[in-house]
Specification:
It is a single chain. The protein is built from 5 helices and 10 strands, in the order αββαββββββααβαβ. It is α+β, with helices and mostly antiparallel strands. It folds into 2 domains: 59 residues; 192 residues, Beta Barrel (Cyclophilin). The strands form 2 sheets. Strands 3-4-8-6-9-2-1-10 form an 8-stranded antiparallel sheet. Strand 3 and strand 4 form a beta hairpin. The longest helix is centred in the first third of the chain and has 54 residues. The relative contact order is 0.19.
Length: 257
């Protein structure tokens, strides 16, 4: 009887050890599976992050459009304004089409401006009067009181049409002069223009041609080469303001930066 009891106890003990061993093995397998699942999830997250990163649009700084006028006396770099899209688009087109290449600065007036862009000037003979050439359309006026004729401004020439529409090709770069408060007040009463204090300060310190504001479209600003503009405007000229020695635009290019 005692032997029977001992045998039963031994069987129970062995069964308990087997169950414990089985549970331990099962736990190890479960832990291994969990580690595999965790690794897979992490890999999938990394892959998903990569896909999302590739799908996100790249944010880039908007570029600024410039034109570079290479002349026989030096280069002039001008920023084109986004606020005057019709003139900007037209100027880019005529530049890319080569319309301005080899044209002259055919009109220069000290303390006022230099003018060019007449296609007829490409093959003009000495002394020939210029300023009537262009393509067979006008550009609608884009006049804004916040864009003024300060020194270095790029503006469109035009004839006397009542809509103040611009020439398709001819333009001028402002040289101008400085003005006093009294002179600006007189000009304001004559033209109906008024200027902010900041704009008055520009005309008093930097200079320009305020009498042309709201009459001719300004669509750019010289950023490099104003000394070249000053050199051109000082060239000896005939009674029609054409320089005696031709000042030619060798090449005009559009660049974005």
């Amino acid at each position: 009887m005692q032997k029977t009891i001992l045998l039963i106890l031994a069987l129970i003990l062995c069964s308990g050890l087997a169950i414990a061993k089985g549970k331990k093995t099962k736990n190890k397998k479960s832990a291994s599976k969990l580690e595999t699942v965790d690794k897979t999830i992490k890999e999938e997250i990394i892959t998903l992050d990569t896909i999302v990163e590739k799908m996100e649009p790249k944010i880039s700084t908007p570029k600024t459009t410039y034109v570079v006028i290479e002349t026989t006396v030096g280069n002039i770099k001008i920023k084109l304004f986004n606020e005057t899209p019709l003139h900007k688009a037209n100027f880019i087109k005529i530049v890319q089409d080569g319309v301005l290449d080899s044209t002259l600065f055919h009109r220069v007036i000290p303390e006022f401006m230099i003018q060019g862009g007449d296609p007829l000037s490409k093959n003009a003979v000495p002394g020939q009067r210029l300023g009537t050439g262009g393509l067979d359309y006008r550009v609608p006026a884009e006049l804004f009181p916040n864009i003024i004729h300060q020194k270095g401004a790029l503006a469109a020439a035009r004839d006397g049409n009542p809509q103040k529409a611009s020439s398709s090709t001819q333009f001028y770069i402002v040289v101008g002069k400085t003005y006093t408060d009294n002179e600006l007040n007189i000009l304001g009463s004559r033209t109906g223009n008024s200027w902010t204090e900041a704009q008055k300060e520009i005309y008093k310190t930097i200079g320009g041609t305020p009498m042309l504001d709201m009459q001719y479209t300004v669509f750019g600003q010289t950023v490099e080469g104003q000394d070249i503009v000053d050199k051109i405007v000082s060239a000896p000229r005939d009674p029609y303001d054409r320089p005696f020695n031709d000042i030619r635009m060798l090449k005009v290019s559009v660049i974005e930066e």
